[in-house]
Amino acid sequence: MSNIIEVNNLCYSYDGDAQIVKDAVHNVSFTVKSGEIIGIIGHTGSGKSTLIQHLNGLLKPSSGEIKIEGKNIWEEPKKIRDIRFKVGLVFQYPEYQLFEETVFSDIAFGPKNMGLTGDELVGRVEKICDVVGIKREYFEKSPFDLSGGEKRRVAIAGVMAMEPKVLILDEPIAGLDPKGRREVIEMVRRYRQQFDATVLIVSHNMEDMAVLADRLLVMNGGKLEMFDTVYNVFSKGDALKKIGLSVPMVTRVLNTIKEKYSGVRTDIFTIDDAVKYLCELSAGDSNA
Amino acid sequence: MLKDITFGQYYEGKSLIHRMDPRAKIVLLIIDMVFLFLTKNIYSLIVPAVQIFLILAVSKVPAKMFLKNIKTILPIIIFTTIINLFYGSGGTVLLSFWHFTVTTAGVWRSVYMASRIILLILISSVLTYTTTPNDITDAIESLLSFLKIFGLKTAVHMLAMMMTIALRFIPTLVEETEKIMSAQKARGADLEKGKLFERIKALIPILIPLLISSVRRAYELAEAMECRCYNGGVGRVRMKQLKYSLVDLYAAIINTAFCGGVILLNILL
Q1: Where are chain A's structural domains?
Q2: Could you tell me which of A118, A136, A129 has the C-alpha nearest to residue A154?
Q3: What is the distance between the alpha carbons of residues A24 and A20, in angstroms, rounded to a whole number?
Q4: d(CA B252, CA B28)
Q5: Is some CB atom of chain B closer than 8 A to the CB atom of A159?
Q6: Nearest-CA distance B208 → chain A (Å)
Q7: What is the rounded average pLDDT of the residues A52-69?
Q8: In contact, A87 and A68? CB cutoff 8 Å
Q9: How far is Cα B170 from Cα B176, in angstroms, rounded to an integer?
């Protein structure tokens, strides 16, 4: 697999006449392989949002470079818009960015900016809606008449309609009810499958990260703290705690059980795995 | 870019001017502005000029802050200067073409006009630099409270509350605008290129979400205020009471002396 994202020694500091020169992102380097799902976690103000805004060229690094598909994105500053179509970025609470009269035209905004017109444009919007499960009957509705979860899905579909190879989502499930969360996660999964996309998700929800992500990127104070598999990151519960993060709830439950019954495994991070493991344990017990 | 918008350009400080009661500052500012317009010519402008530069020095606000303010209205100053060049009558003719003549009187007049505008800007920026926006609103409410004898007490309070809220939400809206701009840029919106009409059209994806979120915020704020039993000023007291002090008295005396100077010069010259 080839590296789709390559970040080398990225530094960024907000300008202004700040006497305290502190980098919002300091000397961050990492690579992401094509097709991976990366979870980005970190305490509030750890530089996650600043980091992801560099990947589609909304922010220009103070120093260091970002390569998408092996090409430095700031090589031709005039073509930075093309990078934004290649790397789709969904901001936090994207439903606040809806502005068109109908759901259809809002989703079509991105593709239209890419220069698509006529049948091609309609085809693009219909395709993405089929993939992520937005029904045709919604097309002529006003986005402002939808429910919170529906608005969120329409807004995310608006970015997906550009069919970016890399999809970055900042807290896509924050503030949604469980049903809305499931729908958004399902939507991201389907998008990735359909388009072989690479996905980066910023989230505070460790449970979802454990289920979704291949690798986790941990940010702390503007620096890259860890970048490893979900297993390896969540195995370092104490280190995570120190920087204001934690392991998934179910792992904490297992930790508590372990205090009473030593020998219980605590390297399980998803509810499904935990259920399976505990069933095996109790089955083993009753056999004995 | 958007961060450069300064409203309520308060400059932190502890000078005498900072310590004055905002009401006294506003009243004296109005008086000084009136006297600035009472001056007859460039000579009688000397008194207010000395006074204003004295105030500037006492306020301890860096000179470059004032220069910044003058720079923003530079086009207006230049425009007035040029227009006034042709308006003076009398004196020797310096230049004459087509229907226009420039005389020495005209030159003096335009210098006078330009200096008056500059002085006006300087003295009013002292108020905004040394007084927080909230203090200004409080002062306005207090100064206008005499209107209550006409049964307008709630109207005055409402006006002050509206100003306070508007000031409070400027930074919030600036932040929000930046967020929405980034989000639409991420969808390929092009805000920098194109003809004027295209550029105006490109603002729609930013203005509509901004408008919607402002309305949403307004509802939320109204609800939050009602939850805390806000009932529009009746029986409300302030945590921070405005109080006149000796500084205000001295300022008023010195100010009166300078105003007397202007009158004197007007009579003498």
Answers
A1: 3-247, 248-288
A2: A129
A3: 12
A4: 7
A5: yes
A6: 6
A7: 91
A8: yes
A9: 10
Give residue A141's identity as a one-letter amino acid code.
K
Residues in chain A closer than 8 A to B209 (CB atoms):
96-99
Which residues, other chains included, contact A248 with Cβ-Cβ below 8 Å and sequence gap of 6+?
A206, A207, A209, A210, A234, A269, A270
Residue A77 contacts residue A28 (beta carbons within 8 Å): no
State whether B3 and A16 contact (CB < 8 Å). Answer: yes
Tens-place pLDDT, residues B222-251: 999 999 888 877 777 777 788 888 999 999
Amino acid at B137: T
**Smallest Cα distance from B217 to chain A, Å:** 12
**Cα distance between residue B93 and residue B73, in whole Å:** 30
pLDDT of residue B4: 47
CA distance A214 to A219: 16
Give A124-181 pLDDT, tens digit per residue: 999 999 988 889 999 999 999 998 899 999 999 999 999 999 999 999 998 899 899 9
- Return the CATH class of domain A3-247: alpha beta
Phi and psi for A39 in degrees, rounded to 5?
Answer: -95, 135
A8 pLDDT more than 50:
yes
Pairing of strands A166-170, A87-90: parallel
